[in-house]
Every structure is written in structure tokens, then in C-alpha cells.
């Protein structure tokens, strides 16, 4: 069986990819320490330390499936609160919409772009699945994911890893907040659900569905 060639952009430690099978993955991550953690989990994946935004532009034609999770803080509700309280003013990073428009216009393979629910009305309508925004050229049915209600600040790192289903044995001198590193991972079942939606059966694309309304 031919493996599906996947481009995993802004890969982090690979929460989205953890349950995928029969894939040949190229993962792009710009943080060396995080890239080392990813490689520990997926030694057979090709891990490249590079700018994911630029890599997409240069290599998008080489894959069967593209997953992109551009940085979300400037789009988040927390960023809105920071702006209101004058704690830290920042514009939303428009690289998110650059990638959406680019892939809608030129990409022939299956693609998905994931981000948080934004504090503003999205400029391009997303699908909303399990509390996340997704832009894709295939339909994603909703998935119910039960989350335990906990005080994240009071959780130990070991408890957080167990809850997330991602046990990291070596952080490779990563200096950032390790719980945030785990929080940035999409739910494992959701990552698998989206991958299966892309390849299990032919579906109307999101954009065709919207045009029919």
C-alpha cells in the first residue's frame, strides 16, 4: 500500500500526527529543541528546521495532504483581553489568511489549516469542530471530545502529560513553558478524525458546500 505523503507545518511536538498510520511525513518546525522532541516521537519522519510559511510556498505541490497550524496567540481571545487592558498591543498575524487564500487558490491536494476561535469574526468562514477553527477543502463532521475540567496552573507536568496522552521523556533543554507546549497539541483523536475525513471517502469540499447555500 502506497503511503500518503504529508506535509506537517508548524509541527510542534506532533500531537496532530500521533495516531496517523501509513504516512510519509515531512514535519517543519523552527524551534530546534521542539524539533528534537518531535523526532524522538517519530524517528521515521523527516524533520526540517525551517520557516513553515516559506516552506509551504516552495513545496506545496509535493504532497498528498497538508496540515498547517500557524501560531494562534495574536488571533486568540486572550490577545483581545491584552489589547483591551493595554498589557501588550499586537495586530493579528495575517500569515494565517495568506495561507488559507493561497491553498484555496492553488492547492490540488487535500489540506487543512487549524487555529483557535478568534476574538473577531473570521475573514474567511471556517468549519468549527471540537472548539477549533478549520479551513479545508473537504468536509469535517463534528466530533464530541470530553475534556476534564481542571485548574491547569495547579497541574504538575506529569499529570498534564498523562491527561494529554503525550509522555515526553527528554525535553532537550527546552526553555519555554512545558505545559504550554502540551496545550498547543491538538487532541489526538481530533487529529486522527480529520485525517480519516480527508481520505476515507469522497466528500463535497467546504467551498462547494458554501456555494450551494
Global geometry: globular
Flag low-confidence runs. 202-213
Which CATH class?
Alpha Beta
Q: Average pLDDT value?
A: 88
Largest sheet: 7 strands, mixed
Structural class comes to: alpha/beta
Radius of gyration: 17 Å
Q: Strand content of the residues, in percent?
A: 15-25%
- What is the first-to-last residue Cα distance? 38 Å
Query: Would you count the extended β strands for me?
Result: 7
- What is the CATH third-level topology name? Rossmann fold
Q: How many domain regions?
A: 1
**CATH H-level homologous superfamily name:** Vaccinia Virus protein VP39
Give me the strand/helix succession. EEHEHEHHEEEHHHH
Tally of DSSP helical segments: 8
Helix content: 25-40%
Amino acid at each position: 500500500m502506497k503511503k500518503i505523503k504529508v506535509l506537517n507545518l508548524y509541527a510542534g511536538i506532533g500531537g496532530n500526527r500521533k495516531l496517523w498510520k501509513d504516512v510519509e511525513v515531512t514535519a517543519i518546525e523552527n524551534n530546534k529543541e521542539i524539533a528534537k522532541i518531535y523526532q524522538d516521537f517519530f524517528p521515521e519522519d523527516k524533520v526540517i528546521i525551517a520557516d513553515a510559511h516559506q516552506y509551504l510556498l516552495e513545496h506545496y505541490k509535493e504532497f498528498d495532504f497538508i496540515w498547517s497550524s500557524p501560531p494562534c496567540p495574536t488571533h486568540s481571545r486572550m490577545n483581545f483581553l491584552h489589547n483591551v487592558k493595554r498589557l501588550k498591543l499586537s495586530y493579528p498575524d495575517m500569515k494565517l489568511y495568506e495561507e488559507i487564500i493561497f491553498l484555496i487558490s492553488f492547492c490540488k491536494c487535500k489540506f487543512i489549516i487549524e487555529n483557535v476561535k478568534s476574538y473577531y469574526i473570521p475573514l474567511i468562514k471556517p468549519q468549527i469542530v471540537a472548539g477549533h477553527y478549520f479551513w479545508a477543502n473537504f468536509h469535517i463532521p463534528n466530533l464530541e471530545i470530553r475534556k476534564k475540567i481542571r485548574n491547569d496552573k495547579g497541574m504538575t507536568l506529569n499529570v498534564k502529560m498523562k491527561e494529554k496522552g503525550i509522555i515526553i521523556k527528554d525535553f532537550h533543554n527546552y526553555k519555554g513553558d512545558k505545559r504550554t507546549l502540551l496545550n498547543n497539541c491538538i487532541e489526538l483523536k481530533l487529529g486522527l478524525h480529520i485525517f480519516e475525513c480527508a481520505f476515507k471517502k469522497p466528500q463535497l469540499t467546504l467551498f462547494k458546500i458554501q456555494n450551494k447555500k
